[in-house]
Amino acid sequence: MISMGMCIGAFLVIIIIHWVYNWRNPRCNGKLPPGSMGWPLLGETIQFFAPNTTSDIAPFVKDRMQRYGPIFRTSVVGRPVIVSTDPDLNYFIFQQEGQLFHSWYPDTFTEIFGRQNVGSLHGFMYKYLKNMVLNLFGPESLKKMMPEVEEAAKNKLKRWSGQTSVEMKEATANMIFDLTAKKLISYDSDNSSENLRESFVAFIQGLISFPIDIPGTAYHKCLQGRKKAMKMLKTLLEERRAKPRKEQTDFFDYVLEELQRKDTILTEAIALDLMFVLLFASFETTSLAITLATKFLHDHPLALKELTEEHEAIIRRRENPASGLTWKEYKSMKFTFQVINETVRLANIVPAIFRKALRDVNFKGHTIPAGWAIMVCPPAVHLNPAKYQDPLEFNPWRWEGVEMNGASRNFMAFGGGMRFCVGTDFTKVQMAVFLHSLVTKYRWETIQGGDTLRTPGLQFPNGYHIRLSEKDEKIQ
């Protein structure tokens, strides 16, 4: 009896050892990139989600780059992952979208953003939704929207100048959310019985957190924030259906028309997930970029001086100095675009872009097995000292004479390939218009003890406090 028990125990030990060995040494029809799969099932998930408290590449990635090189393997939330910090592989991945790779995100991300979110869709459905979004964020629509963007910036800056201090990340997020929500769903925060922005705040705070859905955890609060926001959007959809409008006044009206077409491929679930993602992406990422631009300019007087001169020259060239910005003036802002490029390079708003290999892919002597996830890491490219001299330094002049209409091997702040962010122009317009209103009318100073903004950590930072005053007044 004892010998039988010992045999069973020994057999179980052998099975466990075999399982652990296979976990740490995955099978591959070629040569896997170097790396570690971590503990069985858990992998290196805890290390991956550890916050980055530096302005450099996240320690999880940087440590492994130094140990294994620019391409390495790991395991996160139970999935084998190839991490790429190699510009050539990143570019190859983006160019082979739909052929060798397609968009993929961990189950925890799809749970957060919705299983029918635009990032998880492929082929014709993705192109269909992309064209829908371009109806709102394309150049022709932005030309018409520019006066509203400028008016919103002017009004907010005027209000902020009368306050003792302004927390820039929160203030700009509110400004952009109000404008975007109005264009998308005619939402007016001042006259609404429910605070839609609050739901997104809860959502954002747990967006990059350890995926444990237990009451009290950041991840649980994130899911609850999404649930509340989706409930509000669904209620609005039902109200619009009950009382349809005669003319299109916002993006929701356009979506409703698509849903009512007999030959539509759009479903209610996809439409609601699309609205949720657009509301989130349009304000949260842009507000971070604007906040960082404000901080960088304050910390670099020469850059602020050149930017101010560019915008003051625009006003001097007008027949009526009080008239609003035109599209032609916007397109003429050469140094402004240099500032924007440098800001988003350092901001690294999207710390990771995920894809999945559709079949075995060989690249630079390594094999990426079919079905494995690939994590493209933009910060490792943007902060590469081999490409960018003093990569942690804010230097907009490095972009002088560089035409940047899309992604490149060394610049992927807005993604790349066919999934290049459709909101890129919207972000640039909002940043340029805000900076125009800021530097031509105001001066500002950082409030001591309020400068705690960090980037590009796997979290959405805040804490950058400033004091604003009009240029004809002294800062108290």
From TrEMBL:
InterPro entries: Cyt_P450, Cyt_P450_CS, Cyt_P450_E_grp-I, Cyt_P450_sf. Its cofactor is heme. GO terms for cellular component: membrane. Signal peptide: none annotated. SUPFAM superfamilies: Cytochrome P450 (SSF48264). Pfam families: p450. It is a single-pass membrane protein. Transmembrane segments: none annotated. Gene3D superfamilies: Cytochrome P450 (1.10.630.10). Keywords: Heme, Iron, Membrane, Metal-binding, Monooxygenase, Oxidoreductase, Transmembrane, Transmembrane helix. It is found in: Membrane. GO terms for molecular function: heme binding; iron ion binding; monooxygenase activity; oxidoreductase activity, acting on paired donors, with incorporation or reduction of molecular oxygen. Heme binds at residue 421. GO terms for biological process: brassinosteroid biosynthetic process; brassinosteroid homeostasis; sterol metabolic process. Belongs to the cytochrome P450 family. This is Cytochrome p450 87a3. It comes from Nicotiana attenuata (Coyote tobacco).
